[in-house]
Amino acid sequence: MDKNRIEGAAKELKGTIKEAAGKLTGNSKLEAEGKVDKAAGEVQSAVGKGKDAVKNAVK
């Protein structure tokens, strides 16, 4: 499993938590930061999945 997948999943979780905290407290800046972190995590996770797919195809 590629480290990008793990780091991406962690960023997604962090973003989800920040987004929820922003909604709960009415802090739109925190909510927006959470959405950005979440999207960045999804991209990083997708990159990791792609690398894993290439590694598996080469084997």
Describe this structure in words.
With 59 residues, the protein is mainly α. It is 92% helix and 0% strand. It has helices spanning 3-25, 28-58. The model has no long low-confidence stretch (mean pLDDT 95).
Low-confidence stretches: none
The biggest beta sheet reads: none
User: What percentage of the residues does DSSP assign to strands (E)?
Assistant: under 5%
Mean of residue pLDDT values: 95
Q: Whole-Å distance between the termini?
A: 14 Å
Shape: rod-shaped
Observed structural traits:
92% helix, mainly alpha, rod-shaped, 59 residues
Quick overview:
With 59 residues, the protein is mainly alpha-helical.
Fold topology:
Blueprint: H1 3-25, H2 28-58
